């Protein structure tokens, strides 16, 4: 990439930013112009502003709460030329408070009211989406070490690509950085570099990758090669997540480098035309910026955090009858719909509180494998659902709004990703500091010439610490660590000056023993922690092994004509459900009473005695079995 050709100003001059007043925090608000409306409800303006003051850097959990829902905002695009020409009616209304009203399509249908974190009307600008969708807050969190994702979902032609990267053609020529049409990705990059420039105490390293999932194949958009060779998606034991093997990542020292990644990927992504969109994305794309930060913490310890932000532009769901897709476009549409269906099942399972802890079919598509962490793992996620206001798209709009409402119920547990060794060193360092403080307190208690207030303060501190360590509090004649006083009675520390030298010597000896006991306790705690970490590692490995086994079993099940395939949430499953009469099993292959019960076993035995085939098998399989049986019979 030629960097010199792509040099931009870090902060685009002349771009007006709407200031977010802190006083508007958590307020409902509507911004309207001639034909625009932007409703914001229950939305924390502080959190979406450019300040990182709210972030508690000392904790390893998400600052708002230890569990948080996926944020969901809706963007309604204006009617397009075709819809205007056809005098299509608008069926979407904006009552305010982050609500959206979808009018009934038929006279008999009731209007439906949905509620989200924010709703952007047709007149909302790209800058409005940047400031009020919460993406700025996500960028701050990514800088703090969280794993963040913004994904756009919606039917084909609803404005996903427009929202993320801008209108079509923007990247056909060298893009103008001042163009107000740039999407969220471009303006996020600018905002990100502004954030980084404010953090002089931290060293940042940025790397970016850009991939697409086209017909269930992962293609590197920064290094597609002439053959567009697909890359493998694998499970990482270390990060406990899926990753794309050999994906090209580019070091991005400057804003230019990030923008060059965006341009390059946009040029290489798969785009096609159908009757509902002339520039339809035929693949899902994931642009990831990895942000590694290194800052000095305490006593020369450096803390490294690995944050990231994913921008996911999903291909639009499409009704192939309406898009008139055929041939290659039809194959693409089927793959798009299939992977979106798996995503839908994952979202439905995750949002259903009754299914908490149940199986989530992430492994059924590449898209869900790569989004697993964003959907329910340790990430912070923002979903932008794009819809059309036109009556002709009523069904698709209703589906998207339902999908989005479900996603809103999903809770994730965001955590900062840190190097485990560094985290351990930091916590050990903190323990050592606490011990040193304790020593100082004890030493202070021994200083005879100290001012009168000194011993009383020391006594208070020691007593407080004793309370912290001992559940039942210090017992008379016994120090908090359990080391008894020589004569069984603790001395009055406020009268240290009156003590005899031999008593003081005894006391000093006692404090030394006390200190020794504390060190031992500390080292015991560390050994326990080490043992626990080892146990955890073993459990993880075992889990890993079982998952691999499960995958093997699945793949065997899917291949075998005898064993029914595991129900997967895919088009196949729906088809199978529709033709239930065709679903069959081979009970001879499975006679485990724990699965089928004793009655089932008896049935099989009686069926075997009667010589009847247990179930009607498909003809081709039955013929094959008969052939083999004949073969066996003639041999014998
Ligand atoms: N909010 C908007 N304001 C103005 N034009 C818009 C808006 N949203 C979408 N459009 C226009 O509508 C057309 C279709 O949008 P876009 O290609 O972004 O849809 P999409 O959801 O990404 O579709 P697909 O899933 O087929 O890729 C584009 O010409 C785009 O510029």
TrEMBL record:
It comes from the Eukaryota. Residues 605-629 have a biased composition (Basic and acidic residues). Residues 20-29 have a biased composition (Low complexity). It is found in: Cytoplasm, Cytoskeleton. GO terms for cellular component: microtubule; microtubule associated complex. Residues 1-35, 447-484, 605-636 are annotated as: Disordered. ATP binds at residues 154-161. One of its GO terms (molecular function) is microtubule binding. Keywords: ATP-binding, Cytoplasm, Cytoskeleton, Microtubule, Motor protein, Nucleotide-binding. Coiled coil: none annotated. CDD domains: KISc (cd00106). Pfam families: Kinesin. Residues 69-410 form the Kinesin motor domain. The keyword Transport does not apply. Its main location: cytoplasm. One of its GO terms (biological process) is mitotic spindle organization. Belongs to the TRAFAC class myosin-kinesin ATPase superfamily. Kinesin family. This is Kinesin-like protein. The lineage of its organism: Eukaryota, Metazoa, Ecdysozoa, Arthropoda, Hexapoda.
């Amino acid at each position: 990439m030629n960097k010199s050709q792509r040099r931009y100003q870090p902060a685009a001059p002349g771009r007006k930013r709407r200031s977010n007043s802190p006083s508007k925090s958590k307020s409902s608000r509507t911004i309207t112009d001639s034909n625009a409306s932007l409703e914001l409800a229950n939305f924390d303006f502080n959190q979406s502003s450019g300040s990182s003051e709210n972030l508690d850097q000392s904790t390893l959990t998400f600052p708002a709460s230890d569990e948080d829902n996926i944020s969901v905002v809706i963007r309604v695009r204006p009617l397009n030329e075709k819809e205007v020409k056809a005098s299509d009616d608008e069926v979407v209304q904006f009552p305010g408070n982050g609500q959206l009203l979808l009018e009934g399509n038929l006279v008999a249908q009731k209007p439906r009211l949905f509620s989200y974190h924010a709703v952007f009307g047709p007149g909302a600008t790209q800058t409005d989406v940047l400031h009020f969708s919460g993406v700025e807050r996500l960028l701050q969190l990514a800088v703090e070490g969280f794993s963040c994702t913004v994904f756009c979902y919606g039917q084909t032609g609803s404005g996903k690509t427009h929202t993320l990267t801008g209108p079509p053609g923007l990247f056909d020529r060298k893009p103008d950085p001042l163009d107000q049409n740039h999407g969220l990705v471009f303006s996020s990059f600018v905002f990100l570099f502004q954030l980084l420039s404010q953090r002089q105490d931290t060293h940042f390293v940025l790397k970016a990758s850009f991939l697409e999932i086209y017909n269930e194949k992962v293609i590197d958009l920064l290094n597609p090669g002439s053959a567009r060779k697909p890359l493998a998606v694998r499970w990482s034991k270390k990060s406990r997540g899926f990753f794309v093997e050999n994906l090209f990542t580019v070091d991005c020292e400057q804003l230019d480098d990030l923008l060059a990644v965006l341009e390059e990927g946009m040029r290489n992504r798969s785009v096609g035309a159908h009757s509902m969109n002339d520039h339809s994305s035929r693949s899902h794309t994931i642009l990831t910026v990895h942000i590694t930060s290194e800052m000095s913490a305490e006593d020369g310890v450096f803390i490294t955090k690995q944050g990231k932000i994913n921008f996911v532009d999903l291909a639009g769901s499409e009704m192939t009858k309406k898009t008139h897709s055929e041939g290659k476009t039809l194959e693409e549409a089927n793959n798009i719909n299939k992977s979106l269906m798996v995503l839908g099942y994952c979202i439905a399972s995750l949002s259903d509180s009754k299914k908490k802890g149940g199986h989530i079919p992430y492994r059924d598509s590449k898209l869900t494998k790569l989004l697993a962490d964003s959907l329910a793992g340790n990430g912070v996620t923002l979903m932008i659902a794009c819809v059309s206001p036109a009556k002709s798209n009523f069904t698709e709009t209703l589906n998207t709004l339902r999908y989005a409402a479900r996603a809103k119920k999903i809770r994730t547990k965001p955590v900062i990703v840190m190097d485990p060794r560094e985290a351990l060193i930091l916590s050990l360092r903190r323990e050592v500091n606490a011990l040193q403080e304790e020593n100082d307190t004890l030493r202070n208690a021994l200083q005879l010439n100290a001012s009168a207030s000194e011993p009383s303060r020391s006594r208070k501190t020691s007593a407080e610490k004793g309370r912290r360590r001992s559940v039942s509090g210090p017992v008379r004649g016994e120090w908090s660590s359990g080391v008894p006083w020589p004569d069984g009675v603790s001395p009055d520390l406020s009268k240290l000056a009156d003590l005899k030298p031999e008593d003081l010597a005894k006391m000093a000896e006692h404090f030394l023993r006390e200190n020794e006991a504390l060190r031992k306790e500390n080292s015991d705690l560390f050994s326990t922690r080490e043992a626990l970490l080892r146990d955890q590692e073993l459990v993880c490995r075992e889990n890993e092994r079982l998952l691999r086994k499960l995958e093997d079993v699945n793949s065997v099940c899917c291949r075998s004509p005898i064993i029914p395939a595991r129900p997967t949430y895919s088009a196949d499953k729906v088809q199978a459900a529709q033709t239930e009469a065709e679903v069959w099993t081979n009970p001879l292959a499975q006679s485990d009473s724990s699965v089928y019960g004793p009655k089932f076993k008896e049935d099989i035995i009686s069926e075997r005695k009667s010589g009847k085939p247990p179930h009607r098998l498909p003809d081709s399989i039955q013929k094959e079995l008969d052939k083999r049986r004949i073969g066996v019979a003639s041999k014998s």
